[in-house]
Write a structure and sequence with these properties.
The chain is α+β, with helices and mostly antiparallel strands. The protein contains six helices and five strands. It comes from Kineococcus mangrovi.
Length: 163
């Protein structure tokens, strides 16, 4: 991706496509940025927690409306379309979203415990160049997740189960 949008580019990014900047879209983008990597369900839960009045507020509403999961899904789709969030398949069941300014790394996903770590994408870009030259196929290394086992999970395997 060329040119990472600045964190305050929501309005211009949407307006350039004839779309409006709404509090819901802003809230979803803010939630994705706060969470780093999150599923739509995690974004919804984050926003719902923000809408719940805290005891310090004496039960007063904090100003965020009730969160409808369909609104979160639609907002994520729009934010992805305008290039402010990116989708990665970290979990085999649901996609994860992250802010585009948080890109440029590989996702290392443990099949044992589900932990997600990040690694430099440099080696993947080298591999992508080889694949491109040999197969005329361009690999999107900005959304690459590698599956395997973390050190803690490997330590729990019996010796004959080690790769």
């Amino acid at each position: 991706m060329t040119g990472t949008p600045a964190p305050d580019d929501l309005g211009p990014a949407l307006h350039s496509r004839g779309l409006r900047s709404t509090p819901q879209r802003r809230g979803v983008l803010d939630a994705v940025r706060a969470l780093g990597h999150a599923s739509a369900e995690e974004v919804t839960a984050h926003l719902a927690a923000r809408s719940a009045p805290s005891p310090e507020q004496g039960g007063a509403d904090v100003g965020w409306p009730t969160v409808d999961p369909s609104t979160v899904y639609r907002a994520l789709a729009v934010l992805e379309e305008v290039g402010l969030v990116a989708r990665t398949q970290l979990d085999r069941r649901v996609p994860s979203f992250h802010p585009v300014e948080h890109g440029g790394h590989l996702h290392l996903v443990c099949d044992g415990c589900g932990a997600v770590a990040e690694a430099d994408a440099g080696p993947a870009r080298d591999l992508a160049a080889v694949i491109s030259s040999r197969n005329d196929f361009v690999v999107d290394t900005g959304h690459l997740a590698l599956r395997g086992r973390c050190a803690a999970c490997r330590a729990q395997l019996a010796p004959e189960e080690h790769p």
